[in-house]
Task: structure prediction
Amino acid sequence: MKRGLQGNEQEDGGGTSGGCQKTLKRSRKQRREKDLEDEESRWECLPQEILLHIFQYLPLLDRAFASQVCRGWNETFHMPELWRCFEFELNQPASSYLKATHPDLIKQIIKRHSDHLQYVSFKVDSSRESAEAACDILSQLVNCSLKTLGLISTARPSFMEMPKSHFISALTVVFVNSKSLSSLKIDDTPVDDPSLKVLVANNSDTLKLLKMSSCPHVSPAGILCVADQCHGLRELALNYHLLSDELLIALSSEKHVHLEHLRIDVVSENPGQQFHTIKKSSWDAMMRHSPKFNLVMYFFLYEDEFGPFFRDEIPVTHLYFGRSVSKDVLGRVGLNCPRLVELVVCANGLRPLDEELIRIAQRCTQLSAIGLGECEVSCSAFVEFVKMCGDRLTQLSIMEEVLVPDHRYGLDDIHWEVSKHLGRVWFPDMMPTW
Amino acid sequence: MALNSIHWFRKGLRLHDNPALREAVQGAATVRCVYFLDPWFAGSSNVGVNRWRFLLQCLEDLDASLRKLNSRLFVIRGQPANVFPRLFKEWKISRLTFEYDSEPFGKERDAAIKKLAMEAGVEVIVKISHTLYDLDKIIELNGGQPPLTYKRFQTLISRLDPPEMPVEMLTDTLMGRCVTPVSEDHGDKYGVPSLEELGFDTEGLPSAVWPGGETEALTRIERHLERKAWVANFERPRMNANSLLASPTGLSPYLRFGCLSCRLFYFKLTDLYRKVKKNSSPPLSLYGQLLWREFFYTAATNNPRFDKMEGNPICVRIPWDKNPEALAKWAEAKTGFPWIDAIMTQLRQEGWIHHLARHAVACFLTRGDLWISWEEGMKVFEELLLDADWSVNAGSWMWLSCSSFFQQFFHCYCPVGFGRRTDPNGDFIRRYLPVLRGFPAKFIYDPWNAPESVQAAAKCIIGVHYPKPMVHHAEASRLNIERMKQIYQQLSRYRGLGVFFSSKQEVLCDGITCSSLMSVTCSSSVQFYLYNSPLKLLYIQRFGDSGEEKPQSGKRVREGRLSERAVGLVEEDKGPRHEHNQRWCLSRV
Result:
């Protein structure tokens, strides 16, 4: 607005434009009124592309308010470009503290914008109703050509509590209609082999990302089918029981693009569970085909279930031990995980991990992040470890209780030593004690 | 005109180190010490029998101590705002004194009372003695915001003057000519009530493991220091099975109610350390217990929504589950995990649990297993835990549930393994869950895995005499770590593969001189502070990852307060793929 005024004043001062001549002839008061009119009409005449650009910066609620201003703005509000991405939040007051997407808004989107949607996610709480509501919406997206679909349970996995057939049929609607799905997140859902076949039949050319951890109805054959057909697959997340030598070979076939991320969750259902082994040759094939790929493994096992793991070299890059893991296994990790970038150990026990850590510092030359929870490491060994890793350690998250003072270092001075070798100020993580 | 004063006890239930009380007595003709039995304890009526009993014992003790000075405690039923005007008139009061309460609810209440007093022509004197420091000074030193990391807090503390010395205990001499008019029927009108009078059924109530009162507190602190001196080791003691049990040298409930002055504790610790370690300077870790308390008080004092998730600027919004049945099982020690249930049983029976036990049950309720809101856990602790006051309780729960204070969420406490490592024999379990006494150490932490024969021999069938475990821990922790990752990845806008999130690093830059540069390596955003720096303009330069010398981009910091102190928050550029670990360089222009 100010600019407009200034501009006019300058013109008054001695401008030469034609419009200005008219302005000069009017009285001062009339001039001012005309200025205001000009400004108002300027807003109305704002080109739609510019308005669209501005709207893209506004959150949905503000956009909605803006859309009530005039017809032109309302039209812009409904332009397809603004409805490409949407996140449906489905919560019930009885099971969640957070607000849900308004049902009227949902209706509007389905009515007017379902064919504009391309990147959609559903966040549901732990109630069955929310999961079913998500599937109802999915079933209505028949005109959609989705590129991204995410089914995210924010608390307990409620998709597992609804009737499987309802879920499968809703998901199938999307698979069949989209034909250009690129990213699919369906962790903790009852997806099964037949529905994966439908996915593959319609989207094999476009699928790049598939996250399906903890989908108990899928079998190794089901996921193998995906790997065989979807040659553009770059990111895959699944549970260990779906991992097989055949799968890794399929992912390393010539037709396949380079895999970027592979995330594997190893979860113990019952104590003493036996896990199958993957041959070293399969991992080698993966490495040859995709030398830069990240292998992320999350372990939730009892200590005595680690038998089949870390016996041979394995190209794991990110390792998370969610439960107690033995010294022995950590020793094997040091020996067999040369590509290790991040290591997190939630718990170990009451024997110091000095040797194991030193070995990891020596052999895992890419290590840049480490986290230790309930473990014990002597202060000297820890300083040695940090010295060997140097400033490549960008994340060093050690619980205070981990460090055991010895003759060389006490708790009060260890952080200076460590900070020196890291090149930045460092302190262990603390927990409140009162 | 005779000066009649009232000293208003809220916390600070002691006669030693009570500067406000001394002000009440100083030059006064009469003094009356009042306590309002306000069922709305710190804004909530959620108080269990152990806490009431502790409080009543504190009040009895105060009354007994005041009797020795020919005075008495006046316990008044009702709300201060309603009763004070009457008391001002009836007793012809011209001075009101009390200890400063830093909690937001307390500040509001006190502001209202100050107004009432002013209208009645009553002078109000407030003294700080519940905390070591003046919390507002700490906040000021941090640029107007409370520090949100403990290390930052310690750095700030080390720049302050040491805490003020504790003042002398109130004695006859100090009372001087000041008297307390006590009527015949004082006991009926203003006596300390009993638990029964408050409506509690005390039949079968076991005796208090933590007896309340200043006398007990002062005995304990001597014992506590004796033990420290004997050990001659001021390191944090190693955790063992015994640590889980209530100790006769434990001090936290006494600090909370103010039976023990934190400043007294501070100075006694300092003296002892100097004596044993021959005059060397004590490290900050010596005062750990006191400083954590101070940290949470500081964090909470200006935040009325500190105990909530919604509308709390420092709390992460996590989609916790609403599940009253699961919450009840946790609160009533029926989770089926003996480690958790034993801890919750000790809590309910005695009113105190070891801080690692708190971590275990808090983690189990929130981000570890049940995914229930920390606010619910906080309410249960408020009811049962003797040393849980508003700031410390809320702050700890936020910390333990990884809802605030930049706490990393990857370390999860296993409800089986953690207990087993702490107390391998399981004596703690057997003590508080007698039904499981028959189980051998091998199975006492996970009795559901015991073969039927073992269960039969122990006369305890899981599912019949003791509940089955309410969650499958491996599955629950897998799920929950994924949830936490989702939330933190959204917050820090980084699509990482691992479990670390980049926290804001609080950096202290100390008076940058003309030619010096300071290089800071950290992740995403940097919050920094400059003290006593004569800078007029500050330029932040960011170096690229290849470590080249020339800065690539810069951001001008907000000007305005640069002459004395500058607080700047620099957000990383929202580039298409930003890496961790940008090197930031602060320099003068």
